Amino acid sequence: MKKNTKIIVIIVAILAVVAGGWGAWSITQATQTNQSVSSEQSRVVSYDGEEGKSAYDLLKEKYKVEATEGSFGVMVNSINGLKASTTEFWLFSVNGQQPEVSADKYQTHASDKIIWEYKGM
Predict the structure, then answer these.
(1) What is the pLDDT of residues 48-94, one digit of tens each?
(2) Which helix or strand (DSSP H or E) is residue 87 part of?
């Protein structure tokens, strides 16, 4: 009878080790998946408009922004550390349409939904 008890204890110990390893693998996989989702989400930022504020002013209030001023208005170079490159850049839309003016010149309304997307050519 004691021999059977030893065998059962060994089997339970082996199962515990295998199950523990599986649990750690599952947590690692979930973390890696969440990181890729977070990385993908950082390529799109959005917010609601506010009466009397420009799309650019609201962007600066809500996110870390780097931009340069040009003759046509402000050019957003970076949002939350994701910088524009020669092949990718930040592009904004309002209610699904791209405005004909730069973000600093576009005056938002409370009903506006502003979306910035990191797009490639």
Answers:
(1) 999 999 999 999 999 999 999 999 999 999 999 999 999 999 999 99
(2) none
Handedness of CA 88, 78, 113, 56 (dihedral sign): negative
CA–CA dist 15, 83 (Å, integer):
49
Mean pLDDT of the chain: 80
Phi-psi region at 26: left, alpha or beta (left = phi > 0; alpha = psi -120 to 50): alpha
In DSSP terms, 76 is beta-bridged to 67
Nearest residue to 64 via CA among 40, 77, 81: 81
Helix (H) or strand (E) holding 111: none
Q: Look up residue 58 and give its amino acid.
A: L
Report the SS3 class of residue 100.
coil
**Residue 15 predicted with pLDDT over 90:** no
Query: CA 74, CA 76: separation in Å to the nearest integer?
Result: 6
User: What is the CATH number assigned to the segment(s) 45-120?
Assistant: 2.170.130.30
CA atoms within 13 A on the CB side of 58: 25
Question: Confidence class of residue 121 from pLDDT cuts 50, 70 and 90?
Answer: confident
